[in-house]
Amino acid sequence: MTAPGTAVPDAEEAAIPTGVAATARGGWWAFLGSGANAVFGFVLVVLTTRSVGLHEAGAVFTGVAVFTILSNACKLGADTGLVRFVSRDLAMGGGREVEALVRTAVVPGALAGTTAAALLFSASPLSASLLPQMAPADAQTLIRLFALFLPVATVSMLLLGATRGYGTVLPFVGVEQIGKPLLRVLLAVPVAVLAPGVLTLAAAWLVPSLAGAVGAWLALRRCRAAHTGTPRQPGGALPWREFWSFAAPRAMSSVLDIGAIWVGVILLSALATTEEAGLYTAIGRVITAGTLLQLAIRLAVAPEISRLLALGETDQARGLHRISTRWIVLFSWPLFVMLACFPATVLSVFGAGFGEGAGALLVLCAASVVNISVGNAQTVLLMAGKSSWHLAVTGAAFAVQLATGLFAVPRWGVVGAAVSWGVAIIVENLASAWLVRHRLGFTTIDGGYLAAAGVGLCLVTALALPVRLLAGDTARGLAAGIALTVCVLSITLWRYKKTLGVNDLVCLLRRRTSQPRHSRLPAEPGTP
Q1: Which of 2, 156, 237, 337 could form a disulfide with 213 if both were Cys (CB 3.0 to 4.6 A apart)?
Q2: What is the mean pLDDT of residues 440-467?
Q3: If we measure between CA atoms, which residue out of 58, 417, 397 comes closest to residue 253?
Q4: Which of 3-17, 269-283, 364-378 has the lowest mean pLDDT?
């Protein structure tokens, strides 16, 4: 007999489409992980800048930029390929091709990572070009240190891509968003106190990659054990040609995606100063923190859209995109409004002198509003198999960013780098939204979206702007703005919770520790 009070929540949840339920639960955990990642990232940047200063911190961040771009390049787009093809195989074939898919992705990725590491290890002129203000020998040693960890980081991200294909974000959250960032901070604290330096801080950032690779491998083993499907028939046709036809364009676009984030650091280091490179890195951390929810929803929504499209449930996939975009707009725009109103105060947490980046932060906040407005349109392109379209969009945006950066960085420094990235963000997102709307039929704007936009942008701006004008860009003004916004926003969300889609979200998150009742994927033991 059902206990009193339980029937209504079950009925409410049953009325919500499976993809929406899975996205809400996965997005919840990914949001928590993204929050933890942002906090640890802030702490690490603060530790680095305060222990060695902006000049040497900029050298560390330049190495991180090169490492991040190369590790993403060496994935060859196969991590996104695994998300798409593993989820499709589980939905249509019971998971019989997963093992072969993982081998198809990991072996070329490992070879690419090893080759890139060898080339980076021996490229002395590159080290001097990237770090012209360091002694050549020191610059070469730093770049070689990053090269040593490149293959293992590449393989780790590929394995985590396979786990996401199983419909769970927990391994990715545990390894990439919590485990590695936490280990970096734990290692950086004694280093910053006892032996601060460029090489020691770089080592503290790199060493957790080893633990991350082990964690990713164990997580994939657990996923495979929990989803035992029909064994693959000998001689069965693995869609390797289809896999790499999808992954190859994604390989190039993923480099452009991550390059868009870090190319500003490299341009500032090479064309301006390492101090400005360190300042720009801090600004990038703030912008990344503002997109936490968008990233969380992206991690959860990708395998769901892929599964729904594979099963021919296109209308459900479109509805999932609409509701997830509404959530992103509703909860992310207020963050950027607050950042735009109090930029110098927010940046002051990194130390003296960082307030000079207020103009650059304001530019990127404006661009990020456009990014948030289209939701995860780029994810829809990829999960629909249109990786070549995505490559065309990211390629055009990166070309605009690089051309603008080469012109603006020598003239305006960190503001020029922000302008170049902001223009690229706008170009990429508007182009993706157009393709998703006019080529795939995925719409985002409806009554709920307009209501979310009115609350998330217009209402919050009307509250925060007067506080900014009265109190100035100060800590007191920021605190007052946050308090007022939270109070009024909470009341508004409660009053219009059904129109804004908050009602469904609360219902699902209230029961987030249970597996979706109607899910087509078997439950993973221990997965919330």
Answers
A1: 156
A2: 89
A3: 397
A4: 3-17
CB within 8 Å of 229: residues ≥ 6 apart: 90, 93, 94, 95, 96, 98
The tokens describing 524, both together, are: 């993973």
Sequence-separated (6 or more) residues with CB below 8 Å from residue 111? none
370 contacts 408 by C-beta, under 8 angstroms: no
Burial class (CB in 10 A: 0-12, 13-18, 19+), 329: buried
- Tell me which H or E stretch contains 184: helix 180-194
Q: pLDDT grade, residue 45 (50/70/90)?
A: confident
The count of other CB atoms within 10 Å of the CB of residue 352 is 10
- Structure tokens given for 260: 């868009």
- Would you list the DSSP string of 244-262? HHHHHHHHHHHHHHHHHHH
pLDDT digits 0-9 by tens, 280-317: 888 988 888 788 778 778 877 888 888 888 888 899 88
Q: What's the pLDDT score for residue 495? A: 83
How crowded is the C-beta side of 207, counted as CA atoms within 13 Å? 14
Q: How many other β-carbons are positioned within 10 Å of the β-carbon of residue 221?
A: 12
Cβ neighbour number for residue 26 with a 10 Å cutoff:
28
DSSP 24: H
